[in-house]
Amino acid sequence: MNNDNDKIDVFLLPGEFYFGDKQARISTLLGSCVAITLWHPQKLIGGMCHYMLPSTPFRTDPLELNGKYAEDAMKMFLQDIKAAGTLPSEYQTKIFGGGNMFSKITDTPPCTPNYSKCFKSFSCQQIACKNALIAPYLLQKHGFTITNHDLGGAQHRKVIFELWSGDVWLRKGH
User: Fold this and answer.
1) Cα 13–chain centre separation
2) What pLDDT is recorded for position 108?
3) How far is CA 59 from CA 13, 42, 55, 73, 119, in A?
4) What's residue 162's pLDDT?
5) Which long-range contacts (CB under 8 A, 24 or more apart) does 51-56 make?
6) Which CATH class is domain 2-172?
């Protein structure tokens, strides 16, 4: 974190999560991972997660949450939302990532997220597609409204999210 003029810059590595107030700017770099941003326009609070996988294949401690997994990151968001006295429906929600970073070297086509073809398929090995599919599913399941998204494809993304304004800046690689 870097504190400059009462603003805090937070850079999320894969598997990290941050929820805070209007002082924070959160950024991350994505490949096949996905970032979810949530912003409450009245309270100027929100957060971002950077998850790597849809769910954990096994869990040793049922109470321990790990931001590497979309399902756990969603539970972390819900805990912070409840602690703030707010509801999921009050947040502006955006989703980014899920790029197939190896399509050029593996002859795997770029990800075009399709729930019926990928998410529930044991034969689908495209983790980028699975990551891109789980976010909208979990968000809608918990009462969030998705206001914007940029998912799939074959490029990396840089995401910058300013909690004081709710602005999200996206730069895609080639």
Assistant:
1) 12
2) 57
3) 22, 37, 10, 15, 20
4) 98
5) 51/14, 51/15, 51/131, 52/14, 52/15, 52/131, 53/127, 53/130, 53/131, 54/119, 54/130, 54/131, 54/133, 54/134, 55/134
6) alpha beta
Radius of gyration over every alpha carbon of the chain, rounded to an integer in angstroms: 16
Collect all residues with Cβ–Cβ distance below 8 Å to 63 and sequence separation of at least 6. Answer: none
pLDDT digits (tens, 9 = 90+) for 88-146: 999 999 999 999 876 555 555 555 555 555 555 555 567 888 899 999 999 999 999 99
Using the 8-state DSSP alphabet, how is residue 144 labeled?
-
Which single residue is written with the structure tokens 């959160």? Answer: 26
Residues with Cβ within 8 Å of 148's Cβ and at least 6 positions away in sequence, in order, are 94, 95, 168
Domain boundaries, the chain: 2-172
Q: Count of residues for the chain?
A: 174
